Amino acid sequence: MHWTLLLMPMIWVPQLLLTVGVSYFLSSVTVFIRDVPQSLIVVINMLFYLTPIVYPISAIPLEWRSWVLWLNPVAAIVEVYRELLIVGRVTHWGEWLLTCTLSLGAAVLGRMVYRRLRVGFADVL
Question: In whole angstroms, what is the distance from residue 96 CA to residue 110 CA?
């Protein structure tokens, strides 16, 4: 076991914030736009294959690797998980900090959209 397992909460917090923010946003918008769930299935499938979950980051060509890690916050979360659990060190600190910032922004934006749209939920539902 690596001592880096003690750093696992540093991944859980941004992952939770990102999940909560996206959930707030999508659930609020779904009340008014009924096609969101069908579109979301396609987007989630695309993100699954664009995120190095079942394949290592080394399988991505070197010129694309940084783009995947910087533009896909879930890829950075998965890669930091992999580094903490398997390798025992974290090398993607910059990507992780960007993910933390994006996660916090997603949580704040999702909550704002939810609070703004919830007054109309009863009328639509």
Answer: 20
pLDDT, tens digit, 9 for 90 and up, residues 110-121: 999 999 999 999
- Residue by residue, DSSP assigns 7-30 as GTHHHHHHHHHHHHHHHHHHHHHH
Q: Which residue is listed with tokens 């919830």?
A: 118
* Spatial distance between the Cα atoms of 83 and 67, rounded to a whole number of angstroms: 18
**How many CB atoms are located within 10 Å of the residue 85 CB?**
14
pTM for this prediction: 0.88
Q: How far apart are CA 77 and CA 96, in angstroms?
A: 7
Structure tokens at 44: 């989630």
The average confidence (pLDDT) of the chain is 92
pLDDT greater than 80 at residue 2 = no
Tell me the domain boundaries of the chain: 3-119
Question: Does residue 47 sit in helix, strand or coil?
Answer: helix
* Cβ proximity of 111 and 21 under 8 Å: yes
Place of tokens 């580094």: 83
